[in-house]
Amino acid sequence: MAHTKNILQHTETVSVEKERYSGGYGSRIIQGLSGRKATREAAFFLPYLRSGMTLLDCGCGPGSMTVDFAEVVAPSEVIGIDLESSQFEVGRALALERGVKNVRFVAGNIYELPFSEGSFDAVFVHAVLYHLSDTHKALAEVHRVLKSGGFVGVRDSDVAADICTPSNPILDRSWELIYSVLQHNGANPFLGRTHRALLRESGFVDIKASASFDYYATSEVEVQVGEFWADFILQPHITGVIREQGWATQTELEEMSAAFKSWGEHPDAFYARARCEAVGWKK
Question: What's the pTM?
Answer without folding.
Answer: 0.90
